[in-house]
Amino acid sequence: MDEDPYSDVRERMESLRQYSATHPPPEHDITWFAAFTTYLGYAVLIAFGRVRDFFGLTLSLGSRYVSPATRKGCAPLLQLRENFYNRRLYHRIQDCFNRPVGGGIGARCRMNVIERVSLDGNKSMVFANQDTNDLPNFTPGPYNSLDPSTGNLLRRSLNLGSYNYLGFADDWNQTCKEDVVGTLEKWGVSNGGCRVEYGTTDMHRELEKLVADFLGKEDSLVLNMGFNTNATTIPALVSRGDLIVSDTLNHTSIVNGARASGAAIRTFKHNNASDLEAVLREAIVLGQPRTHRPWRKIIVMVEGIYSMEGEYCNLKMVKDVCKKYKVYLYLDEAHSIGAMGATGRGCCEYAGVDTADVDVLMGTFTKSFGGMGGYIAADAATIAYLRTKCAGSVFHNSLSPIVCQQILTSFRVIMGVDGTDIGARKLRALRDNSNYMRMRLTDMGLHVLGNYDSPIMPVMLYNPTKIAAFSRECFKRGLAVVVVGFPAVPILMSRARLCISAGHTREDLDDALKKIEEVADICKIRYGWSSFG
Amino acid sequence: MIIWAFLTQTKKRPGKFDAKLSDREKNALIADWTPVSLTPSLSASEERTVSSGKVLTGYTGRTMTTSDGIEAINCGNFDFLGMSIRGEVKEASREALEVYGCGSCGPRGFYGTIMPHVTLEERFAEFMGQGQQSIMYSDGASTSSSTVAAFAKRGDLLVVDEGCFEGLLTGALLSRSNVRHFKHNDMDDLRRVLEEIKAEDKKLGRDALEQRRFIVVEGIYRNYGTVLDLPRLVDLKGEFGFRLLVDESLSFGTLGDRGQGVTDLYGLPGSVEITTISLENALGSVGGVTVGDEEVTDHQRLSGAGYVFSASACPFVSEAAVAGLGIMEREGKSMMNTLKKNLKVMLKEVDGIKGLTRTSDDRSPVIFLVLKKEIECEEEKDILKAIEEACMEDGLAVVATGDHIGKHLLYKRVRAGIRITVNVVMTEKDVKGAGRILKEKVRMFV
């Protein structure tokens, strides 16, 4: 066995991990100071925006107020009040989002982010290019360079933002390239048909069998897009007369699917099994609204790891409640499949729940597997039904055979059937890296959400202005982080989100931690130590 | 005041426990309740769809090989231009794979925007011309549903062709707008609906400028093979103050001199405000784009659900689509001519088949044939399925659309039929052979 990079802190990491597995994650309440300044921040931003809008409109200054597409006789495509948030808040910090990644990166943990500038007062961003944008003279530094072919400014960054949990984007050339590129000889990029109309290849079938075996289910269905897997399966599973009981923090794809289904929707408090029980009792006793007929069926929808909270599902208790009330359980493992559990089998394995007790398992291949698309795994009758009824199978084109191969290959690595221990090492590295990072970030006095063993760690920023400050300061130091503000999270709960990968090394993380510490001092976000950060 | 507003924003849960029920009664009610099974059991014909589903083991554009070892002429999928097997496209994909790897590992907003996505958006805008811009989604059908829902909101008005495919109808449903339907591809009926709306406006004293209004249609209808009557539609939208949202997933690469779709076909560039196009058909790649002006594309970067909340497309599929656009630019004219020629021969073949009527347009490479005699639905489906299976045995891949499309919950009525597609890779001999096989099989079952 290789030398353990964390041997010096191993004991502490393990004890924290064990504590976290048996205790709920720490509750971080927003400090009164942060709450006050956050509201104040929004009040100032909104007030300034309103004043600028008022003068801008009355004096007709600037192009922000005129909808270019407005044709005579049509309502404007976007109303001023509707895009107030975009124009007056989002545009100020839009450089922190949608950062483009430049060519020639190979390994994703070290990536070249293309720098952008705004030439129109932050209304739009263009690539920072020395030749075209009239920028001050470029000076090479440790993190920035110039793309010789395009003249774009690049920033070499450590990737703490992508869902590259098992690091397949880093060692792709060694682990997957041969198989995936080889598939191009036989198959095209796409099949030009949906699953039931000549879009199914033997590779799709092989993958479905593999997924079903991996999860201990009878059958599975693979579709072209993770988002659509939820958005098209849920309407096929439930309809009017059924009830969906959904965690309040479920992903938009579940929300979209639930809305499109026509079923009634209730929510329960995030990850709270007793609230779930209360909601279920109420629903079963009262039946459908007005008519009080019994529900035809009830389905509970939860996620394995909540992507904005870094918290994993309290699956055992949720499962017990579902069993007790004879309701179905739908588990979205978009972030947990491949990343959690001793052998990467996701939340069920981690929580010690038999997959037979979860009626429908859903997951995506975008994250841990470095591919694209999603799957649904369930018993054979359900999958057969979905094959003929779910829009993703009967109307939407099938998964690309090339991507199929990527997933097959990465599955084999994870399962160790490729004859190496790369998969096992990846899983171990991911867990160790995540726990080390979480431990050190918490030590720093930051408010870090979520559980140990989860590769997602949100660091609370609270103030809207700190979103931009944290992101820009990190970016300056060569750290690519994701920051999230309203409306993706509640208005008080702006945060930065770090996603750890098996591809990171301890040196990477130590370096990142040093820089985050600097940034934490600049931004004053050590709320664990002081109410004032 | 703001603080107060947020503090009072608590959601009420509908329906409280009735105080009259005791715990024992509640427990009895809970014990009594038995849910139905998760999914209903399948009908015999649906079982058949699942069990008889063809698995491909090889594909050359012109033909497809099934796991039963049959090599069949491809009249089944939407690879109209044979793009997915073109050497240039594969080469571009291979190069991109070597540089970027396979997946993008994140949504566009969070380091999932990779150079090929930017390149594709620029190249697509260039290809469509007219100062248009484009935005890329990672799945073709969700391009349509996300785009519709991004612009139309509660209180807006959508006038939708009732024959639109699932993606657009789902989008209309998710938008929560007021939706009105008009008869499939019937411009007189559309005028009737628009007049009604106008009359309502007058009655309610509603200003038409307060509401965003869209007419939602398809270039070539996926479920009918009919072609949009764009000139009349453009007149109507101008007269009544509507915007046009056209899905050109099947018409892009198949209609017009350059293959740009219905605007190209009718010579009306710039007449459509929002166009959604799947890259999965004529371009033989994966994903979709929405084309429109800057405001249209910019808005979706924050509000297109499929754009914001889904992982971005694999970089190599974007490069494949860019290569496909290059081919269309170079060979578009001759490709369109070949397609038209093959279509003409195919139409001559299938129009002579006794017992079937063609419902699709003369210009559409997606041909729909329905039974002349109207019979009971289940029986009709069985006949069509039998034709599909028999054709396959003799080496022709066509699609019987009865089972999976006809019964979708969003459709009021879609007549089941046989769908045949033509492409540029097939030879005249293939087309004639296809016609002959189909004729034979139809005679056997009808």
UniProtKB/TrEMBL annotation, chain A:
Cofactor(s) for this UniProt protein: pyridoxal 5'-phosphate
Reactions catalysed, as given in the entry: L-serine + hexadecanoyl-CoA + H(+) = 3-oxosphinganine + CO2 + CoA
Gene Ontology MF terms in the entry: pyridoxal phosphate binding; serine C-palmitoyltransferase activity
GO terms for cellular component: membrane; serine palmitoyltransferase complex
Gene3D superfamilies tied to this protein: Aspartate Aminotransferase, domain 1, Type I PLP-dependent aspartate aminotransferase-like (Major domain)
Keyword Cell membrane found: no
GO biological process, one term: sphingosine biosynthetic process
Domain Aminotransferase class I/classII large: 158-516
Enzyme Commission identifier(s): 2.3.1.50
Any Pfam family hit: Aminotran_1_2
Signal peptide: none
Superkingdom, taxonomy of origin: Eukaryota
UniProt keyword list: Pyridoxal phosphate, Transferase
Family: Belongs to the class-II pyridoxal-phosphate-dependent aminotransferase family.
Name of protein: serine C-palmitoyltransferase
Source organism per UniProt: Triparma columacea
TrEMBL record, chain B:
GO MF annotations in UniProt: pyridoxal phosphate binding; serine C-palmitoyltransferase activity
Gene3D superfamilies: Aspartate Aminotransferase, domain 1, Type I PLP-dependent aspartate aminotransferase-like (Major domain)
Top-level EC class: transferase
GO biological process: ceramide biosynthetic process; sphingosine biosynthetic process
SUPFAM superfamilies associated with the record: PLP-dependent transferases
Pathway as given in its UniProt record: Sphingolipid metabolism; Lipid metabolism; sphingolipid metabolism
Keyword tags: Acyltransferase, Lipid metabolism, Pyridoxal phosphate, Sphingolipid metabolism, Transferase
Family: Belongs to the class-II pyridoxal-phosphate-dependent aminotransferase family.
Protein name, as recorded: serine C-palmitoyltransferase
